[in-house]
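Fold sample X.
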Amino acid sequence: MKAIDIIRNEHRALAAVLRALEATIADLRDGRRPPDFRLLAAMIDYIVRVPEEVHHPKEDGVFFPHIRAACPDAVPIIDELEHQHHRGREHVLQLAMSLIHFQAVGAAAQESFCAAAERYVAFSWTHIEMEERQLLPLLSDRLAPAAWAEIDAAFAANADPWRGTADEFERLFSRITALVPAPLGLGDRRSGLASRIT
């Protein structure tokens, strides 16, 4: 069941970006630092490219159909997760559009962007928790070996969420880490440097 490890690894990578986004929004709201549009754009780029373009399509196209066939009791969970994937795309679009508006308008649009970011973060934590706590524990012995082999092969083809193809995700993740201030990242803050987001 290598796919389960890959799914959890992708969740951890997204969780690191979500924590950094939460901290960045808190800093903006409290006036601790001015908006860093390079950082915000990098975070949204990662959100689009890893969960939306790599992670969710493999779940919808390969993982969930096998679960539907083998685990009838999991069908309501799958239905909700698929619905969340659809809503997640809407959240990401709203987040990206609110960032563009924030960049164009300035401080008058900051609260609208912060609210969109907080909605996305809360939505993502709910989604990750549902997969990790409700779906994955059901599956250890429910799918046939041939089904797991197909699922494992599909997820093994995913780019590593920490590295990506030709290390593009690693470069993007490193850019986020370099821009996020301590204690979550390596960016400049009066309290000094911090460890890498993990």
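Fold sample Y, listed below.
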Amino acid sequence: MDAFLTARLALAAALVGVFWLVHVVGLIIYNVFLHPLRDLPGPRLASVTRIPMVIRKYQGDMQQWLMKLHEQYGEVVRLAPNEVSYINAPAWKDIYGFHTGNKPNFPKDASFYGPDASGGNAGLFRADDTSHARQRRILSHAFSERALLQQEPTFRRYVNLLITGIRQLVASDPNTKVDIERWYNYTTFDVMADLSFGEPLNLLVDHSQEWFLKAVFSFLKLQSMSQILRYYPGIARLLRPLFIPKSIIAKQARNNQECIAKVNRRLERGSGEADIWGLVMKQEGDKAMSLREMHANGITFMVAGTETTATALSGLTYLLLQNPDKMEKLAKEIRSAFKTEDEITISALARLEYLNACFEEGLRLYPPVPLGPPRVVPQTSAVVCGKVLPPGTSCYVSNYAAYHSERNFTDASKFVPERWLNDSRYADDNKSVLQPFSFGPRNCLGKNLAYHEMRMILGNFLWNFDLQICEESQNWMKQKVYVVWEKPPLIVRVKDVRPDRPGQQL
């Protein structure tokens, strides 16, 4: 009896193995020879399985892989059986643009984004089109040009604290080394916490809350690792301990709890204060945000509105340090434009042509979000760059690959702000492909805020200081990507060119 049972079990196992093998072989044949995307160029192995892509994501070098693939295969690359990357400008409109009539918008790829950190899809970032439009109307007033000009004293206060903090370090030791990337983060986190909740972290004064910075990057790294697991839901629970350390999960939980607590404390103070939540709380009825929406958006603001801005500032600073002639030209423009610090206003900085060109070039070479934000082709199918994509296809414009492609930019690997100032050498550049804040109805709500904040920080910094990069940061841009760049310290020496300036009391 035991022998008979053993034989039957062996037969059953063999049949399961055969069926599994037939299924796998059939899937390979379909993906390679019958799939609607079979004619798109790309690595043959990638048409069979997404494992090559998953490996690159896990290793943090997906942006380099994408760049090489597009160099080899062209403007369109099939990266996985059901995933396509683009580097041409028309793809922005086709994928991310607003569609009408019988052409619905492309929804965000849930397997990439996952649920809100507060649970569900309540927040602006992941909401469906109807909920997104309602929430965006509420928040757009807080990010309007008029509202941002009214917040100029807030920008000024924290920029003064930044300048004073650096000035005191230099005064105590002229040879001191400064991690400017960390100080940029102190500033952007303090600004965003104050604008959002009327409750700064006071990082520029007291570094005891520095854990919040580390928690935010852990949050982003957790998102990157979770994306990989969502590709394989059947075995995600088994793989989760291998992919995601408990320390990262704990840091994310602490970050979420603190953001939610800030929202709750702000709600207790009422709607009288002139910050983002003051406007949110004035909405009533069908327009009002739910508490879950507020919690989700509070977490989003303290991630999307902080780390990415500091990243862009750090990247541009490094590029300027690696190109001393460009740094000298920018410093000269800033210092000749303003006789006193009081003249360095949001409006005045926005008129500096070379400063604006430097930011565009910095965002091109070092986009804070290097990979493409994926969307999914709706059930009606859709045409992207002249090719019909079947429903469910994940597609996107890959920022880093697009911006570093010689198909789009002459001297693509070089830092040349002049390309944005009508230099005839770069007349053929495909500048419309540069969309670092995304495109369409779901583009970054805080775009204007980011530009004003970056100009205010860098403009004041270069008005007051000269910078020199230290040897240990010469290769600073060799970084991994986990949603955003995994940045090492950016170590510089700082020379105070206005040592007689009074500092704001720390």
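Sample Y note: The first helix runs from residue 2 to 34.
Also: The longest strand covers residues 491-496.
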